[in-house]
Design a protein that fits this description.
Blueprint: E1 6-9, H1 34-39, H2 55-69, E2 70-74, E3 79-88, E4 91-96, H3 98-101, E5 108-112, E6 118-124, E7 135-140, E8 161-166, E9 170-173, E10 177-180, E11 190-200, E12 211-213, E13 225-227, E14 233-239, H4 260-266, E15 270-274, H5 275-283, E16 304-305
Antiparallel strand pairs: 1-11, 1-16, 2-3, 2-5, 3-4, 4-7, 5-6, 6-7, 8-11, 8-13, 9-10, 11-12, 12-15, 13-14, 14-15
Length: about 300
């Protein structure tokens, strides 16, 4: 039986920069000239006072932030993504997915930062995070790196733009051929725009996944940051579309599964763990960590009960 869930769902919206219209079906629409935006960084980082920035300027600003705080995590074997969330002296902390960190049996990693440097990372134990697909990795560096600003989910609505960055393990080449990006360094960086499509407010999926979005994602981007329009971190990406895995991949924390109709919608999206989940767990843990600003639990603004 499907549990009663408060779920925000996305059916249709319009954007001034390129029109997106979804009625009944949901499709990823590429951002015009996104590759060009990735090369241009002449605009200042987003200011909270700049409330009337064009969509293009907003995207450019988020790209700048993403390039500064996103890291690649190289394991043996495998690779994933992460985001810089704090600095204490010369110690940096990266937030990523547990399934990315678990790829290294020795719990050590190579962390690639935006300046092309590789740092030796070590996993920090998270004893108070059972069942949540999150992990912390720390490394030492005398270099200065920006860290992400944590966002507030109360200030985002269904249909709002969502941005994701990370490092795919493969890139398409010549039609159906793929290039492995293990030795690409920073060239493998990818940034995608989509829209917030669904929020599970009561029961999350297993391992803490609650935010669904239309962004196109690839293997290797797990652990990468999910940003709002202000370039603030609102989630950690960890699941792509799961059509092939079937409904078993969408079990709720109370042991139930979605209806067939709901599953058809949910399987079309990528998924993230809200940053508020990390903050709430951190509060009750014994892990020494810098204090973050308070972030209220997400409240549905136009939810429907299913």
């Amino acid at each position: 039986m499907t549990p009663k869930l408060h779920i925000q769902r996305l059916y249709s919206w319009n954007m001034s920069w390129g029109t997106i219209l979804l009625t009944g079906c949901l499709n990823f629409v590429a951002v015009p000239d996104l590759a060009k935006l990735l090369q241009e960084f002449s605009q200042p980082v987003f200011s909270h006072n700049s409330t009337f920035l064009s969509q293009e300027a907003t995207t450019r600003s988020v790209v700048q932030v993403a390039r500064q705080v996103t890291v690649r995590i190289l394991t043996n074997p495998g690779a994933g993504s992460g985001v810089l969330i704090s600095r204490e002296g010369q110690t940096y902390t990266v937030l990523t997915c547990d399934h990315v960190a678990n790829s290294s049996s020795e719990q050590t990693y190579q962390v690639l930062t935006a300046d092309g440097k590789i740092h030796l990372g070590v996993r920090q134990n998270l004893p108070d995070f059972p069942g949540i697909d999150l992990a912390l990795i720390r490394f030492e560096s005398q270099n200065h790196y920006s860290v992400a600003t944590l966002g507030n989910l109360e200030q985002i609505s269904i249909g709002d733009p969502i941005y994701i960055s990370g490092f795919p393990n493969y890139q398409p080449r010549d039609g159906n051929n793929l290039d492995i990006t293990d030795d690409w360094g920073w060239r493998a960086f990818r940034f995608t725009q989509g829209n917030l499509a669904m929020v599970l407010s009561h029961h999350s999926l297993l391992r803490g996944y609650q935010l669904a979005y239309t962004n196109e994602t690839s293997g290797g981007m797990s652990g990468g940051p999910v940003f709002n329009q202000q370039g603030e971190l609102i989630g950690i990406h960890g699941r792509g579309q799961a059509v092939l895995q079937g409904i078993e991949a969408f079990q709720f924390t109370n042991g139930t599964f979605p209806s067939s109709e709901l599953y058809e919608q949910m399987s079309q999206f990528s998924w993230a763990i809200p940053i508020s989940t990390f903050q709430q767990r951190l509060k009750s843990s014994s892990i020494p960590f810098p204090a973050f600003p308070e972030q209220p639990v997400y409240r549905n603004q136009s939810s429907e009960e299913i």
